[in-house]
Structure formats: structure tokens, C-alpha cells
Write a structure and sequence with these properties.
CATH topology: OB fold (Dihydrolipoamide Acetyltransferase, E2P)
Shape: globular
Helix content: under 10%
CATH architecture: Beta Barrel
Strand order of the largest sheet: 3-2-1-4-10
Mean pLDDT: 94
Radius of gyration: 15 Å
Low-confidence stretches: none
Order of helices and strands: EEEHEEEEEHEE
Largest sheet: 5 strands, antiparallel
Number of strands: 10
């Protein structure tokens, strides 16, 4: 399967918590970082705890914060990382953020946003991802 999303990696489902409309899916990224996806109950019915799934997050859905996790924002997932790649253009900036030795995610932000954050290689950042922006696919 060819896909245009920049962040495509395998993760393990740690829990499924359905409510009347959606299911919260707990995930473990490579290296152990936790993440939460929010799927429709119908979509989530295809998955089970312990299953390895393909995680898909568009780089444009990743928000960057200059402080440590814990900011009062509506994005459910907040993960600390380090800037390991920067590719700037006059309009946008692609940022590689290493969460741990096994997991790097990418964000595409405005050039002005990158400048406002003072991003440099080695800068600590927090990436934030809304649970509804996390997509899952079955592996195999």
C-alpha cells in the first residue's frame, strides 16, 4: 500500500475502551511511548488488544510546543522529543522529532511557526496530536 502520510509506523494496541459512539484505542509506539487514537466504534471493532497495527498520522496534524508536556490544550497526545531534522522553505518547515531511539515522527508547520519556536537541531519540543487525527490500519 502506498500512502502519502509522512508518519507511518507500527504500534501495539494496549487497550480498547468503547463508549456509545467512539472507541478510545490505547497504543504503544516503538520504544514504548504511549499514544491514543479515537475511532468510531464500527472502525474499532476490527482491532483487538495486543495486535500490531500500522499507525498513520499526517505531518500537518502534528502540533509543536516549545515547553514540556502538560500544556492546557485540547490535543490528547503530548509527547516530549528532540528536534533531529529541519527542512525549511519560505512557507513551511518540516521537523523531525525523535521521541526515543526507536521512534521519530515528523511535523509540517509554517515557517513563521518554526521561527517563533526558535527550532534548532537538538531543541527539546513537545509534539501534540489530537486522538482523532490518528488513523490505524491492519498489518498484513
Amino acid at each position: 500500500m502506498q500512502i502519502s502520510a509522512r508518519n507511518v509506523l507500527d504500534a501495539i494496541i494496549t487497550r480498547l475502551q468503547p463508549d456509545s459512539v467512539t472507541t478510545e484505542v490505547g497504543l504503544q509506539l516503538p520504544g514504548g511511548a504511549p499514544l491514543v487514537a479515537n475511532l468510531s466504534r464500527d472502525s474499532a471493532s476490527a482491532f483487538k488488544p495486543g495486535e500490531t497495527v500500522r499507525l498513520i498520522i499526517k505531518a500537518s496534524s502534528v502540533i509543536l510546543l516549545s515547553g514540556p508536556p502538560g500544556a492546557a490544550i485540547s490535543a490528547r497526545n503530548q509527547l516530549p522529543g528532540t528536534v533531529v531534522a529541519l527542512e525549511e522553505s519560505p512557507v513551511s518547515t518540516e521537523v523531525g522529532i525523535r521521541l526515543n531511539a526507536e521512534c521519530t515522527l515528523f511535523a509540517t508547520i509554517s515557517h513563521g511557526g518554526g521561527q517563533a519556536l526558535g527550532l534548532r537541531l537538538g531543541s527539546p519540543v513537545t509534539l501534540a496530536i489530537k486522538a482523532s487525527d490518528v488513523m490505524l490500519a491492519q498489518v498484513g
